[in-house]
Amino acid sequence: MAMVEIDGVKKRYDGGFEALKGVDLTIEEGEILALLGPNGAGKTTLISAICGITIPTDGTIRIGGHDVVTDYRAARSLVGLVPQEINLEPFEKVMNTVRFSRGLFGLKNDDALLEDILRKLSLWDKRDSAVKELSGGMKRRVLIAKALSHEPRVLFLDEPTAGVDVELRRDMWEVVADLKRQGVTIILTTHYIEEAEAIADRVGVINKGRILLVEDKDALMVRMGQKELRIELGEPLSAIPSALSEFGLTLSADGTRLVYQYDSNAERTGIGRLMASVSAEGLVVRDVATVQNSLEDIFVGLVHDQQQEDAA
Questions:
Q1: Would you list the domain boundaries of the chain?
Q2: Shortest CA distance to 175 belongs to which of 83, 50, 80, 100?
Q3: What is the C-alpha to C-alpha distance for residues 155 and 237, in angstroms, rounded to an integer?
Q4: Which end of the chain has the smaller Cβ count within 10 Å, N or C?
């Protein structure tokens, strides 16, 4: 079942700047989508449009079947948002802050639920502390607790762990995993690409207001991931032997490593011929290792390709 449906969404500001350029995206119930993109790519604008914070210039957005413009209240009640900016009442106590957020949605008080949320975020012992007494990382936890207070079915995490400690990240991903088990749909934007690689079901790449790709993370890694064969030599080379030129090798600066790039999905990788040629040249091989491209490598490649297309 589609929980979030985005059709032809554009956002144009006064002056003509177009932050979103016809975005189409469907997000299924209970999945984790990681939305990646450089600064200014349109990630936050897209999330703001989905949450009803900004109104699209064109297109439609539905959450749980409710249009975010014409049926705003029903759509917004399904959404929890953890924004980038920390904007909390400094003199209010933590528990009251979270309790108030739940009340904004017209829900009855449920301190047992709020206690569970605060405990999972390691905030329970701070429940009677004023927000101004908390560290930056603790304030970020309060934002997350506020977003979860009304039991949303869709949770947006806009750079939720930017600039915070490793402990909070671990707590956050444990909460995310638990929410996924409950069927909550989670959309995550992050600069920590290793986090997206670790927890996302699908990955979307956005740049300059356009979605470049949305694909199952594992399928993306298989389809686009290239591998490197790294051959460590017993003795350094000053240049790559001419007999090995057909393989497109690169030589490390110190001459002790040959690097061969290949497609792991190809019927023939050429590794066998390469190693036979290396042996025929009398090169002493000290070690051989393979390295697969990370999601970050793929992301950088997609953005680079778009930049080249725009420049052409």
A1: 2-221, 226-292
A2: 80
A3: 54
A4: C
Q: Say how many CA atoms lie within 13 Å of 203 toward its Cβ.
A: 23
Q: Contact at 8 Å (CB) between 133 and 148?
A: no
Query: Phi first, then psi: what are they for 66, rounded to 5°?
Result: -100, 125
The CATH superfamily of 2-221 is: P-loop containing nucleotide triphosphate hydrolases (3.40.50.300)
CA–CA dist 71, 60 (Å, integer)? 12
DSSP string covering 203-270: EEEEETTEEEEEEEHHHHHHHH-EEEEEEEESS--SS--GGGGGGT-EE-TTS-EEEEEEETTSS--S
pLDDT tens series, the chain, 312 aa? 899 999 999 999 988 899 999 999 999 999 999 998 888 889 989 999 999 899 999 999 999 999 999 999 999 999 999 988 888 999 999 999 999 999 999 999 999 999 999 998 889 999 999 999 998 888 988 999 999 999 999 999 988 776 667 777 777 788 888 889 999 999 998 777 777 888 899 999 898 899 988 999 888 777 766 788 999 999 999 999 999 999 999 999 999 999 998 877 777 889 999 999 999 999 999 999 988 777 777 777 777 777 777 776
* Cβ–Cβ < 8 Å for 303, 205: yes
Residue 80, beta-bridge partner list: 155
Q: What angle do CA 214, 215, 219 make, to 5 degrees?
A: 160
As a whole number of angstroms, the distance between CA 218 and CA 78 comes to: 29
Nearest to 299 by CA among 177, 187, 173, 215: 215
Alpha helices (runs of H) in the chain, residue ranges in sequence order: 43-50, 72-77, 94-104, 111-120, 136-148, 166-181, 193-199, 217-224, 271-280, 295-311
pTM of the predicted model as reported, rounded to 2 decimal places: 0.77
Sheet holding 32-36, edge to edge: 79-82, 154-158, 185-189, 32-36, 202-207, 210-216
Looking at the DSSP bridge assignments, the partners of residue 188 are 34, 157
